[in-house]
UniProtKB/TrEMBL annotation:
The keyword Metal-binding does not apply. InterPro entries: IPK (IPR005522), IPK_sf (IPR038286). This is Kinase. Belongs to the inositol phosphokinase (IPK) family. One of its GO terms (molecular function) is inositol-1,4,5-trisphosphate 3-kinase activity. Residues 1-29 are annotated as: Disordered. Its EC number is 2.7.-.-. Keywords: ATP-binding, Kinase, Nucleotide-binding, Transferase. Gene3D superfamilies: Inositol polyphosphate kinase (3.30.470.160).
Amino acid sequence: MSHHHLKLPPYQKRRGHASSLSGKKQPVLGLGMSGDQPYPVFPEGVQPLENQVAGHTFEQGTDILGLLKNLDDGSILKPAGKVLCGVREIKFYETIQAATTEKDLVPLKEFIPGYKGHLKLPIDGKPVEFIKLTDLTHGMLEPCIMDVKIGCRTWDPLATPEKRKAEESKYQACKRNLG
C-alpha cells in the first residue's frame, strides 16, 4: 500500500482571524527581541512572523530582515535577499508552480508552500523585494514546525566559497558517514 498520497488533517485547532497586534501580545522577533523593542517600520497589514523556525530572523542593531506575515491574506513574505539569490529562488518557485508533467518536480508541490508571486514593500522607507508564499500553518493555534535538513550538503550548487565554508561548519554530527 502506497502512502505517497496520504493526506492527514492538521492536528491543530483553528483559531479566529484576530491579529495578535490588536491585543496585548506582541510578536517575538527572534534572538531575544520582543515587540516592545525597536524594529523596522512595516507597511500597514504586515507584521513579523511569530512562529519562524528557520532562516534569517530579525536581529536588533542590524539590517537583517526575517519573515513577515501579511495580515490581509495570511501569506508569508520572505525577503528575497541578495539579488542573485532572490532571482534564483523566485525562479525555483515559478518552475515548481508551473510544473505539470515533470516526474521529479510535480511531487515537490506537495511539500513546499504555494508560490503567490513576488512584490516590493517599503521597510523603513526603503523598497525590499519579497517572495510571497502560502502559510501552511495559517489559522493554527500552536503549530508544530521543524526544519529538516536532508543530505550532507546544505548549500546551493552556485553558493560562494564563503557560503560553502560557513555551511560546512554547521551540523557536523549529522554529516559524518554512518555506513
